[in-house]
Amino acid sequence: MFKHILVAHDLSREADIALHRAIQLNRQLGARLSVLHVLEDHLPNAVQNNLRDAAQQYFSEHLARLGVEDCQLLLRKGRPAQQILEEMGDSQADLLVIGRHHHNAPELFIGTTLERVARHLGAPLLLVMGEQADEPYQEAAVALDFSLCACDALRNACALLPQEARLVAINVMELGSRLLTKSGNATDLLATQRELLGKLLEDELSGLAGQTPAMELEVVRGALPRALDEAVAERRPQLLALGSHGRSLISQALLGSLALRYLQAPPCDLLLVK
Protein backbone atom coordinates (compact mmCIF):
# COMPACT_ATOMS: atom_id res chain seq x y z
CA MET A 1 0.00 0.00 0.00
CA PHE A 2 2.75 2.45 0.91
CA LYS A 3 5.13 3.18 -1.96
CA HIS A 4 6.79 6.46 -0.94
CA ILE A 5 7.61 7.49 2.64
CA LEU A 6 8.52 11.08 3.46
CA VAL A 7 10.10 11.82 6.84
CA ALA A 8 10.34 15.40 8.11
CA HIS A 9 13.58 16.05 10.01
CA ASP A 10 14.39 19.22 11.97
CA LEU A 11 17.68 17.93 13.45
CA SER A 12 16.03 17.18 16.81
CA ARG A 13 16.37 13.91 18.72
CA GLU A 14 12.65 13.26 18.20
CA ALA A 15 13.05 13.68 14.44
CA ASP A 16 15.93 11.24 14.44
CA ILE A 17 13.78 8.60 16.14
CA ALA A 18 11.20 9.18 13.39
CA LEU A 19 13.95 8.75 10.81
CA HIS A 20 14.89 5.38 12.29
CA ARG A 21 11.24 4.24 12.02
CA ALA A 22 11.00 5.51 8.44
CA ILE A 23 14.15 3.57 7.53
CA GLN A 24 12.76 0.41 9.16
CA LEU A 25 9.50 0.75 7.21
CA ASN A 26 11.41 1.52 4.03
CA ARG A 27 13.27 -1.78 4.35
CA GLN A 28 10.20 -3.76 5.41
CA LEU A 29 7.90 -2.45 2.69
CA GLY A 30 10.39 -1.79 -0.09
CA ALA A 31 9.08 1.75 -0.38
CA ARG A 32 10.92 4.83 -1.60
CA LEU A 33 12.34 7.02 1.16
CA SER A 34 12.74 10.80 1.15
CA VAL A 35 14.07 13.00 3.95
CA LEU A 36 12.85 16.60 4.09
CA HIS A 37 14.66 19.33 6.02
CA VAL A 38 13.30 22.88 5.99
CA LEU A 39 15.71 25.81 6.36
CA GLU A 40 14.70 29.15 7.80
CA ASP A 41 14.06 31.74 5.10
CA HIS A 42 14.44 34.97 7.08
CA LEU A 43 18.25 34.86 7.31
CA PRO A 44 20.74 36.56 4.97
CA ASN A 45 21.53 34.61 1.81
CA ALA A 46 25.11 33.90 2.86
CA VAL A 47 23.93 32.42 6.14
CA GLN A 48 21.27 30.36 4.38
CA ASN A 49 23.85 28.99 1.95
CA ASN A 50 26.14 28.00 4.82
CA LEU A 51 23.27 26.30 6.64
CA ARG A 52 22.26 24.48 3.46
CA ASP A 53 25.79 23.19 2.92
CA ALA A 54 26.05 22.10 6.56
CA ALA A 55 22.69 20.31 6.39
CA GLN A 56 23.69 18.58 3.15
CA GLN A 57 26.90 17.30 4.72
CA TYR A 58 25.21 16.27 7.98
CA PHE A 59 22.47 14.23 6.33
CA SER A 60 24.81 12.63 3.81
CA GLU A 61 27.10 11.43 6.59
CA HIS A 62 24.25 10.53 8.96
CA LEU A 63 22.34 8.47 6.39
CA ALA A 64 25.55 6.69 5.44
CA ARG A 65 26.16 5.79 9.10
CA LEU A 66 22.64 4.36 9.25
CA GLY A 67 23.31 2.22 6.18
CA VAL A 68 20.82 4.03 3.95
CA GLU A 69 21.91 3.89 0.33
CA ASP A 70 18.89 4.87 -1.74
CA CYS A 71 17.35 7.96 -0.15
CA GLN A 72 16.33 11.30 -1.61
CA LEU A 73 17.38 14.31 0.49
CA LEU A 74 15.15 17.36 0.06
CA LEU A 75 16.34 20.73 1.38
CA ARG A 76 13.72 23.46 1.26
CA LYS A 77 13.36 26.88 2.82
CA GLY A 78 10.25 28.50 4.22
CA ARG A 79 7.69 27.71 6.86
CA PRO A 80 8.04 24.06 7.91
CA ALA A 81 4.33 23.14 7.89
CA GLN A 82 3.75 24.72 4.48
CA GLN A 83 6.85 23.10 2.98
CA ILE A 84 5.92 19.68 4.36
CA LEU A 85 2.41 19.89 2.94
CA GLU A 86 3.66 21.12 -0.43
CA GLU A 87 6.31 18.40 -0.66
CA MET A 88 3.79 15.70 0.24
CA GLY A 89 1.72 16.85 -2.71
CA ASP A 90 4.55 17.43 -5.17
CA SER A 91 6.34 14.14 -4.43
CA GLN A 92 3.10 12.14 -4.19
CA ALA A 93 4.36 10.53 -1.00
CA ASP A 94 1.66 8.38 0.59
CA LEU A 95 2.96 8.35 4.20
CA LEU A 96 4.38 11.18 6.28
CA VAL A 97 6.58 10.19 9.24
CA ILE A 98 7.25 12.86 11.83
CA GLY A 99 8.61 13.10 15.36
CA ARG A 100 6.81 14.35 18.42
CA HIS A 101 6.89 18.02 19.45
CA HIS A 102 6.50 19.52 22.93
CA HIS A 103 6.12 16.09 24.53
CA ASN A 104 6.71 17.56 27.98
CA ALA A 105 4.09 20.29 27.52
CA PRO A 106 0.97 19.08 25.64
CA GLU A 107 -0.66 22.47 26.18
CA LEU A 108 1.86 23.92 23.70
CA PHE A 109 0.67 21.58 20.93
CA ILE A 110 -1.62 24.12 19.25
CA GLY A 111 0.38 26.08 16.71
CA THR A 112 3.16 23.54 16.31
CA THR A 113 4.26 22.27 12.92
CA LEU A 114 2.70 18.90 13.74
CA GLU A 115 -0.66 20.42 14.58
CA ARG A 116 -0.73 22.53 11.42
CA VAL A 117 0.30 19.62 9.21
CA ALA A 118 -2.21 17.23 10.80
CA ARG A 119 -5.09 19.62 10.14
CA HIS A 120 -4.50 19.84 6.39
CA LEU A 121 -2.69 16.65 5.38
CA GLY A 122 -4.73 14.27 3.30
CA ALA A 123 -2.31 11.34 3.44
CA PRO A 124 -1.77 9.11 6.49
CA LEU A 125 0.49 10.57 9.18
CA LEU A 126 2.69 8.44 11.43
CA LEU A 127 3.71 10.20 14.63
CA VAL A 128 6.70 8.41 16.14
CA MET A 129 7.58 8.51 19.81
CA GLY A 130 8.69 4.96 20.66
CA GLU A 131 12.39 4.51 21.32
CA GLN A 132 12.68 1.07 19.67
CA ALA A 133 12.18 2.33 16.15
CA ASP A 134 14.60 -0.03 14.41
CA GLU A 135 12.43 -3.14 14.83
CA PRO A 136 9.10 -3.87 13.11
CA TYR A 137 5.93 -3.28 15.06
CA GLN A 138 4.70 -6.42 16.85
CA GLU A 139 1.73 -5.13 18.86
CA ALA A 140 -0.77 -2.65 17.44
CA ALA A 141 -4.32 -1.44 18.03
CA VAL A 142 -6.89 0.33 15.90
CA ALA A 143 -9.95 2.24 17.08
CA LEU A 144 -12.74 0.65 15.05
CA ASP A 145 -16.31 1.63 14.35
CA PHE A 146 -18.47 1.50 11.23
CA SER A 147 -17.15 4.71 9.68
CA LEU A 148 -15.16 4.81 6.45
CA CYS A 149 -12.20 6.53 8.10
CA ALA A 150 -11.99 3.82 10.79
CA CYS A 151 -11.92 1.16 8.06
CA ASP A 152 -9.22 3.14 6.27
CA ALA A 153 -7.22 3.23 9.52
CA LEU A 154 -7.58 -0.55 9.81
CA ARG A 155 -6.28 -1.14 6.28
CA ASN A 156 -3.39 1.28 6.71
CA ALA A 157 -2.40 -0.30 10.02
CA CYS A 158 -2.33 -3.73 8.38
CA ALA A 159 -0.05 -2.32 5.68
CA LEU A 160 2.50 -1.20 8.28
CA LEU A 161 2.59 -4.51 10.18
CA PRO A 162 4.54 -7.67 9.40
CA GLN A 163 2.62 -10.93 9.18
CA GLU A 164 3.81 -12.07 12.63
CA ALA A 165 2.43 -8.95 14.34
CA ARG A 166 -0.83 -8.82 16.27
CA LEU A 167 -3.50 -6.17 15.70
CA VAL A 168 -6.43 -5.68 18.07
CA ALA A 169 -9.47 -3.74 16.89
CA ILE A 170 -11.03 -1.86 19.80
CA ASN A 171 -14.62 -0.69 19.63
CA VAL A 172 -16.14 1.47 22.34
CA MET A 173 -19.89 1.06 22.61
CA GLU A 174 -21.73 3.74 24.55
CA LEU A 175 -24.88 2.29 26.09
CA GLY A 176 -27.18 4.96 27.45
CA SER A 177 -30.25 4.21 29.55
CA ARG A 178 -32.59 5.07 26.67
CA LEU A 179 -30.91 2.56 24.34
CA LEU A 180 -31.04 -0.14 27.01
CA THR A 181 -34.75 0.53 27.58
CA LYS A 182 -35.55 0.19 23.89
CA SER A 183 -33.21 -2.63 22.91
CA GLY A 184 -32.81 -4.94 25.88
CA ASN A 185 -29.87 -5.74 28.13
CA ALA A 186 -26.27 -4.71 27.69
CA THR A 187 -25.02 -8.26 27.13
CA ASP A 188 -27.25 -8.76 24.09
CA LEU A 189 -26.30 -5.39 22.64
CA LEU A 190 -22.58 -6.03 23.06
CA ALA A 191 -22.95 -9.47 21.48
CA THR A 192 -24.78 -7.98 18.48
CA GLN A 193 -22.16 -5.25 18.14
CA ARG A 194 -19.38 -7.81 18.25
CA GLU A 195 -21.08 -9.93 15.58
CA LEU A 196 -21.52 -6.96 13.23
CA LEU A 197 -17.96 -5.77 13.73
CA GLY A 198 -16.66 -9.29 13.19
CA LYS A 199 -18.37 -9.34 9.82
CA LEU A 200 -16.94 -5.91 9.04
CA LEU A 201 -13.42 -7.13 9.87
CA GLU A 202 -13.89 -10.22 7.72
CA ASP A 203 -15.00 -8.12 4.76
CA GLU A 204 -12.21 -5.56 5.14
CA LEU A 205 -9.44 -8.13 5.56
CA SER A 206 -10.63 -10.21 2.62
CA GLY A 207 -10.02 -7.24 0.35
CA LEU A 208 -6.36 -6.85 1.38
CA ALA A 209 -3.64 -8.29 -0.82
CA GLY A 210 -1.04 -10.54 0.78
CA GLN A 211 -0.78 -11.75 4.35
CA THR A 212 -2.36 -9.82 7.21
CA PRO A 213 -1.38 -9.72 10.90
CA ALA A 214 -3.19 -11.80 13.48
CA MET A 215 -6.46 -10.03 14.31
CA GLU A 216 -8.39 -9.74 17.53
CA LEU A 217 -11.62 -7.86 18.24
CA GLU A 218 -12.44 -6.24 21.57
CA VAL A 219 -15.78 -4.53 22.19
CA VAL A 220 -15.89 -2.55 25.41
CA ARG A 221 -18.74 -0.74 27.09
CA GLY A 222 -18.07 2.82 28.10
CA ALA A 223 -17.66 6.36 26.85
CA LEU A 224 -15.05 7.94 24.67
CA PRO A 225 -12.30 8.83 25.25
CA ARG A 226 -11.97 7.21 28.67
CA ALA A 227 -12.90 3.67 27.64
CA LEU A 228 -10.46 3.76 24.74
CA ASP A 229 -7.75 5.19 27.00
CA GLU A 230 -8.24 2.31 29.43
CA ALA A 231 -8.23 -0.35 26.70
CA VAL A 232 -5.05 1.06 25.16
CA ALA A 233 -3.38 1.32 28.57
CA GLU A 234 -4.19 -2.33 29.26
CA ARG A 235 -3.01 -3.54 25.85
CA ARG A 236 0.09 -1.31 25.68
CA PRO A 237 0.44 -1.41 21.87
CA GLN A 238 3.45 0.00 20.07
CA LEU A 239 1.17 1.57 17.47
CA LEU A 240 -2.35 3.00 17.66
CA ALA A 241 -4.22 3.62 14.39
CA LEU A 242 -7.00 6.15 14.44
CA GLY A 243 -9.38 7.50 11.81
CA SER A 244 -10.06 11.22 11.92
CA HIS A 245 -13.79 11.51 11.37
CA GLY A 246 -15.02 13.79 8.65
CA ARG A 247 -13.66 14.37 5.17
CA SER A 248 -15.02 17.85 4.51
CA LEU A 249 -12.74 20.87 4.45
CA ILE A 250 -14.27 22.10 7.68
CA SER A 251 -13.73 18.74 9.37
CA GLN A 252 -10.15 18.59 8.14
CA ALA A 253 -9.49 22.10 9.46
CA LEU A 254 -10.94 21.31 12.87
CA LEU A 255 -9.69 17.73 13.21
CA GLY A 256 -11.69 15.29 15.27
CA SER A 257 -11.57 15.81 19.03
CA LEU A 258 -10.31 12.26 19.55
CA ALA A 259 -7.54 12.70 16.96
CA LEU A 260 -6.52 16.01 18.50
CA ARG A 261 -6.45 14.44 21.96
CA TYR A 262 -4.11 11.64 20.92
CA LEU A 263 -1.89 13.94 18.88
CA GLN A 264 -1.43 16.08 21.98
CA ALA A 265 -0.65 13.17 24.27
CA PRO A 266 -0.03 9.96 22.30
CA PRO A 267 0.27 6.78 24.39
CA CYS A 268 2.48 5.21 21.70
CA ASP A 269 3.24 5.73 18.02
CA LEU A 270 0.12 7.10 16.35
CA LEU A 271 -1.10 6.48 12.81
CA LEU A 272 -3.68 9.11 11.86
CA VAL A 273 -5.80 8.42 8.78
CA LYS A 274 -8.44 10.70 7.26
Q: Classify the helix fraction into a percent range.
A: 40-55%
**Low-confidence region ranges:** 246-254
Class by SSE composition: alpha/beta
pLDDT averaged residue by residue: 89
Radius of gyration: 20 Å
Strand content: 15-25%
In terms of quaternary structure, the protein is single chain
Topology record:
Blueprint: E1 4-8, H1 13-29, E2 32-39, H2 45-65, E3 72-77, H3 80-91, E4 95-99, H4 113-120, E5 125-128, E6 139-143, H5 148-160, E7 166-173, H6 177-183, H7 186-206, E8 214-221, H8 226-235, E9 239-243, H9 249-254, H10 257-264, E10 269-273
Parallel strand pairs: 1-2, 1-4, 2-3, 4-5, 6-7, 6-9, 7-8, 9-10
Antiparallel strand pairs: 5-10
Helix pairs in contact: 3-4
Task: Write structural notes for this entry.
The protein has helices at about 15-30, 45-65, 80-90, 115-120, 150-160, 175-185, 185-205, 225-235, 250-255, 255-265; strands spanning about 5-10, 30-40, 70-75, 95-100, 125-130, 140-145, 165-175, 215-220, 240-245, 270-274. The protein has 10 helices and 10 strands. Mean pLDDT is about 90; it is low at about 245-255. Helix content is about 45%, strand content about 20%. Helix 3 (about 80-90) packs parallel to helix 4. The chain is an alpha/beta fold and about 270 residues long. Strand 2 (about 30-40), helix 2 (about 45-65) and strand 3 (about 70-75) form a beta-alpha-beta unit. Strands 3-2-1-4-5-10-9-6-7-8 form a 10-stranded mixed sheet, with helices on both faces. The two termini are about 15 Å apart.
